[in-house]
Structures are given as structure tokens and as C-alpha cells.
Amino acid sequence: MGSVRQRGDDKWELRVDLGRDGKGKRIIRTKTVKAKNKTAANKLLLEYEYEVMTGSYQAPEKIKFADFVTEWKEKYARKILQESTRELYDSVIKNYLIPEFGSMVVKDINAMRVIHFLDNVKAFKKDGELSSSTKRDIYRVLRNVMQRAEDWEVIKNNPVKKIKMPKVETMKVDNVYSIAEVKELTEKLQHEYLHWKCFIYLALYGGLRRSEALALELDSIDTEKGTITVSKAIVRGEKGKGKVKEPKTKKSGRTLSVPQFVVESLFLLSKEVKINKIKMGPSYNQKENWLICNEYGHAYYPTSPNKWWKKFCLRNDMRYIAIHDLRHTHVSICLYSGIDPNTTSKRAGHSSIKTTIDIYGHQIIEADQDAAAKLNEQFNPRKQVN
């Protein structure tokens, strides 16, 4: 038999009476939960009674980390995190956190133990130091899991909150195409399907992220002004379906100009999409007006461009770089062409100009040095005298 009683604002104590033990002592199981009112608390009581009666309940002070992670995945990760984020978190949990903390009781994981772990953790499947970014991922995942343990009153305080996040070395972008390779790629794209050509154009000449290019609609293109408006993103969702969401950051939503030949290709693609919609009739997607889509008007799943791109590079004997590196190539070209970092940052949809400078700082310096060399070449008085 169960009962509830209020313990504070939105806090309720659930009590389940299991009768008496062999010595006549009453067996009571309790659990404190958050609920807006008594009705909501009684619903939680039914779930709690089932857990206790079926033996699936574990007292908070005895829950092991591996068991808690299972609860965390079901009650938090699956509902809150995007699929791509869940994949990263699952990898970190499997390869680093479970081997270290899996058999430990959650309440026994303290700050000193976490600090020792972060200082000594080695790369998975190889004996060596982890990159600073991987250590930061490990820190974030562990902090997230332990924060849920605090929120759900399995522990009183999250020990990871007391520890500073590991510093990440500034990322440098070097794996980009040269001007000659960009010209070669542009030439070879002329023989490809129009939608894939436009997709690469958007990354290479507009700096769009993969998720942003896939989420463009017919009315995202203004052919008269020669602009593209980014307002959505398509990311990986559950069961092989893409998920439409807001862009990565507030400044990722933007309108930018693109070269005229890109505008012309996008215009031709929009005409092709409209013709195909009439041709396919009721079989065509009637809900959205995606620009880059299959013959039935459905947006491509986020990993589809990657598969096509690898095959394209192979059959055209192009040096392979990741699709996201085409975006890096765009930023690099802008900086080398003398476009100021602030304008370049806005085109890329970076959260701030600091992001652009931190990532591409070495290229900004090289572009500045190149500009100085050109000024010297043109205006050096000694050279003019000679």
C-alpha cells in the first residue's frame, strides 16, 4: 500500500508499505520526487509501487553507475538529446566512463576520483594521451550524467561541478582545398546531378553547414538580389529520419550573397523541383518545399551527401576532404581574398568574430603578410629607382 505527503514546494515523498519482516519490523520504502500537485505525485506513486513490488527498484544509495546510466539513457538522453549528440555520448560512456566507474555506487564517485580519472585517462584502443577536445567531451558527458543524479536526488551534489572543464587547444584548419583545387572541383561538378552540384556550391561558395544546405526551401533563394537565407537546419533524427530544427547558433540564421553563377544554378534547380512536383503529382511531398531533395520532394538524410561526396572524389580523382572542410575552404578563400574577418564571420554564421579569429588566426596572419608583400612589390621606392 502506498501514500504520498508533501515535503516542500513541488516536492513529495512517496511511501510504499511492504508489511513486516521476520522480526515484526515494518518495511517501508520511500522516495522523494518533484511533482506540481498531489494528482501528479499519485501517478508517480503508481510507478514507484510497481518498481518496488516487482523488485526493479534500487535504493538511491545503492545504485551503481552502470545501472544509473541505463536510467539516464531512457529518461533523459532519448528524450532530450539529438541523435548525433547521443551517439557521441554513448561512445564516451562505453569507452571511458563505464570501464572506470561502471561498478561503482554513484554516491561514492567524488571530485578527487574524477580529477584523478581526467588526469590519467588514456586514448581508447591505444596507449597515448587523449586530445584536449576528447577530454572535454568526457568531462561534459560525466557532468551531464551526474547532474541528472543530483536532480533525481540519487546524490546530494554533483561532484563534477566543482571541477574546471579541461582547456581545449585552439583548433587550426589546414585540410582545405587550394585555389587550383577549387577551380578543378567546380569544373568537375558541371557533369553531376544539379542538386548535388548546388549542394557543394552552397558549402564552397556560401560557407553553409551541411545541415543548413539541406534545410533550404524554394523561397530561401532570392534570385533577383542574389541571396540565400538560412533559417533552419536538418540534423539526424530517430529511425533514419532527418529532424528539422533551429540553426546551430543565433547568428547562424543569416542572409548572405553568393556568386552569380551559383545563383543561376540554384534558379535552375528550383525550376527542376517545381517541374518534378507537377510530374509526380500526389506522390510528391505536399508538406514542405525543399530545394535539395529526392524525386519525391523529401529532404535527404544528413549522411546522404557524405556518401555521394566520397564516391564523387574517388571517380574524379579528387583529393578527399570532409564535406565540412568545404565550409572551411570557403572561409579560407574569403580571408586570402582580403575579405575582412568580421564580414567572413557573418557569412559563416559564427557565433562571434572571436570564433573566426581563434580557428583561422594563422590564415589571417598569412593573408596579412601576403598583403604586405604585395604592397612592397608595388610601392617599394628602391625598386622604382632601379
UniProtKB/TrEMBL annotation:
InterPro entries per the UniProt record, alphabetical: CB (IPR044068), DNA_brk_join_enz (IPR011010), Integrase-like_cat_sf (IPR013762), Integrase_catalytic (IPR002104), Integrase_recombinase_N (IPR010998), Integrase_SAM-like_N (IPR004107), Tyrosine_recombinase_XerCD (IPR050090)
Pfam families from the UniProt entry: Phage_int_SAM_3, Phage_integrase
GO biological process, one term: DNA recombination
Domain of life the protein comes from: Bacteria
Cell membrane recorded as keyword: no
Tyr recombinase domain residues: 172-374
Keyword DNA-binding: yes
Entry GO MF terms: DNA binding
Domain Core-binding (CB) as annotated: residue spans: 63-150
Sorted UniProt keywords: DNA integration, DNA recombination, DNA-binding
Entry's family note: Belongs to the 'phage' integrase family.
Family matches, as PANTHER family: PHAGE INTEGRASE-RELATED, PROPHAGE INTEGRASE INTD-RELATED
Protein name: Integrase
Species per Swiss-Prot/TrEMBL record: Jeotgalibacillus soli
Organism ancestry: Bacteria, Bacillati, Bacillota, Bacilli, Bacillales
